[in-house]
Amino acid sequence: MRAGSLRLAAWRPHARAVRAPWKMEDWLTTPGSLTARLVAHSARFRVRRLHQQVGLCLADEARAIGLPRPERVWEREVLLECDGRPVVFGHTVVPMRCSASDWPLFSALGERSLGTTLFYDPLVRRGQLEFARLRAGHPLVERVRAATGESKETVYYARRCVYRRRQGLLLVTEVFLPEVLDLAPSATLKNTK
Question: All domains of the chain, ordered by start, with CATH?
């Protein structure tokens, strides 16, 4: 496989196409808010913001957000942590042409969950989920490794979705870390103590 092809992900409309283990597929296909599910699977949930700044979108993101080629975008990256352990890496891009009225809370999120604003705003329309298997060489894998300190070669499973609000587009990509498979519903955690 050529190095250039590793920089692109093959995004599929069905989770089964990425051949994830069944427990991972269950996480990938979480209906509704992933944040709500993570909260239900931990005693302490945290959004750790890594950065929020202007950046260049990835080659496999440009078309999804209506750009002819990679361009400058607003970019936000976070780690979603359950009980002190990172379980999901979140990467969001918003085209520069989008206005503050399209996404009024985006610039002020801080360490709050983007999901809580997306799922409770009646103006937000969610697109179809897409799924991919990401390998070393893909820029998001390199960012995950830098954020978590992970050094071993791991295949990551990811999902992404375009959200629309007014005239604005926003692309959220969630990369699931292997640790997400260790989570159990918090009711189960309480009953075992």
Answer: 3-191 (3.40.1410.10)
pTM: 0.89
CB 64 within 8 A of CB 159: no
Instruction: Quote the longest CA-to-CA distance of the chain.
Output: 54
Nearest Cα residue to 103 out of 164, 56, 50, 52: 164
Residues 6+ apart with CB under 8 A from 190: none
Convert the pLDDT of each residue in 79-128 to its tens digit: 999 999 999 999 999 998 887 777 767 766 767 777 777 777 788 888 99
Residue type, position 158, single letter: A
Nearest to 28 by CA among 87, 78, 77: 87
**pLDDT tens digits for 15-28?**
999 999 999 999 99
